[in-house]
Amino acid sequence: NITINPFIMSASVTVPLAKRTGIFFSGRTSPVGEEYKWFKNKIDSEKGIHNFGAGIYDFYAKISHSTAKGATVAASFFQSMDKYNINMGKNSDDWNMGWSNRIGNLKFTGPASGRSGVKMNFSYNSFASDQSSSVIFNGSKNLLQMRSTIEELAENIKVFHGFRKSVIQSGFQMKFSKFAPGASSYSEKWNEQKLSAYTSTLWGQYEYRAPHSLYLKLALRANWFKTDTVKFFEPEISVLAEYNVHPNIKLTATLDRMVQFHHTLEGMPLGWSLDLIVPSNPVMRPESAYQAYVGAMGDFGRHKMSAGGYYKVMDNLVYYTDASAIFCALKTLWMDKIEIGKGSSYGLEAVYEYSDRKIDARAAYTLSKTDRTFASIYGGRSFPAKFDRRHILNSSVEWKIKGEGKNSESLSSAFTVQSGHWESVKSYSYPS
């Protein structure tokens, strides 16, 4: 399979090696950088971007084998890179930014024995985010660089057994993570901090289904998190209940407690899109959230609709108060500019869908409010979170003109409107 368009070119191939063994390859790249050079050469102007480069690609490979008894073994590898270079002129700064991912995965699925089974997985993940700019410093041109990286090794095992109306699943996960957040440098001398963390999780899940009337699911997770300086034990719970009050109407209710051991320090200075990802420590305890949802769904043939409301409270949220401090990493560290606070989010959601032989239509609307509260910010009063979008409306219509499948013709349209996001800044003079 080959696909070519002005932004991305991709190709994939599947190769059978034996009766139950095969290999799959796929890759993508972007011609945007070369296209820009071609257009730039046709324009006789010194204005705008002097030079633009883009190195965009990803590659995926997988080999899988099935045994005669039904077990499968699969190994896969994924690599991606998004790298850009911008120059506004001969005497201006060079600007570079890039993101990369590397993922390796080895998976085993045991043969099904009745309703029982086992799955095991071993994976490696590496992520890096880099930014650099050539700047004039102390009368000479220097290369200012910033980067943030994460490497993870994880092992998972899952076993399950099904009964007539229920299924029980359980599993165990071990993960080792290595962080290098907020590394910065002038020229080639790096100033960085390296951190490591271990996470172990024991979990279980129970599902019960009574046909046409009731569905229940209960999940429990016990998490142990450890670094060189701290240990945490944090449980998680998830409850889901669905009940058919009528053949066409279903009521749904959920209750969840969620925990996150990694924090994302957002808010790098304008023009820098580097987010630092760091593990929990004695000051930045694991983020936690409680969320409840109650709703109803209706299916009336061509018409389907759902509506519900949710409420969510969050604790130990992290706010990076002075992101520009990363440029002075030799004088101050990112952990000196952290504030811990709380947050809440609540709202209503509604969806309507219509479908027949000629028309598919859908409309979805969300009314919500999300805020943050930090003791030393805004006098301890709540303020809108950056992505507090009060109104979100999405709609789409597709008219099937004729035919089906590959030999079909249709006309579609989409419309969206939503509130913009908030930006809260300090009371300060910002020179333009």
Explain the overall architecture.
The protein is mostly beta strands. The protein has 1 helix and 23 strands. The chain has a 21-stranded antiparallel sheet that branches. A two-stranded antiparallel ribbon has the order 15-16. A hairpin with a 2-residue loop joins strand 2 and strand 3. The protein is globular, with a radius of gyration of 26 Å. The two termini are 51 Å apart.
What's this, in brief?
The protein has 432 residues and is mostly beta strands.
Calculate the terminal CA-CA distance, rounded to whole Å.
51 Å
| CA-based gyration radius | 26 Å
Helices, by number, come to 1
The counted number of beta strands is 23
What is the topological layout?
Layout: E1 2-4, E2 9-18, E3 21-29, H1 32-42, E4 51-66, E5 72-87, E6 94-109, E7 116-137, E8 140-162, E9 166-186, E10 189-191, E11 195-210, E12 214-226, E13 231-246, E14 249-260, E15 262-265, E16 276-279, E17 287-300, E18 303-320, E19 338-355, E20 359-374, E21 383-384, E22 391-402, E23 409-418
Antiparallel strand pairs: 1-2, 2-3, 3-4, 4-5, 5-6, 6-7, 7-8, 8-9, 9-10, 9-11, 11-12, 12-13, 13-14, 14-17, 15-16, 17-18, 18-19, 19-20, 20-21, 20-22, 22-23
